[in-house]
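Revision sheet: structure tokens.
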Amino acid sequence: MSVNTVRFAVVVLSVFGFSSATQVGLTDKVLVFPYETDFSFVALIPQKEMGLRAFTLCMRVATELPEERQIILFAYRTADYDELNVWREKDGRVSFYMSGDGIFFHLPPITTFRTSLCLTWESRTGLAAFWVEGKRSTYQVYKPGHTIRPDGTVLLGQDPDKHLGGLEAVQSFVGEVTDLNMWDFVLSRSMIQAWHYGHKVPKGNIFDWGTLEYELNGNVIVVDDD
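Predicted:
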């Protein structure tokens, strides 16, 4: 974790006007976003620089929001770019964007029952896929040769539409997130399926739910995963 990353996160929290002490570890815990707001979010502090040429991002997510409601699932932004944003779109498709136009996938719906969701991408070939309940979508080719830039900030629950601001309630996440992990490489099919079933896998070297550094802001609740 770089000094620049920490400084950027602190400035984000200060400008938004909501900040709390950094907390560590969410083993057997769930983040609950109970209401639609333009101020509730969780800032995540990565364990290493997010200058990435490959990644695997996994989480377990649930929401009661209707399919026609756009939802931000994960947002990583630097000063000038949305480096990595994951969305459920208004038409129910799931998408992700890296510094520009995104790609879209027809996946089983995200509902009130927890969905195991992973996303993989690697720069060399541009191959990208979502994984739902351990099953891979069709590959799409997206931005071969691209590099995700470091020194940004990661938010759950909100999408900053511009540097240090621009939160919108109508895009906010309402629901539950747990077991979010991220690696700077593409996990194998067997590893993703092992994670889905709750088996032991290598700890995420960017985000590991058990040792995650995070800051709660607004109406976000941490509850036991029962």
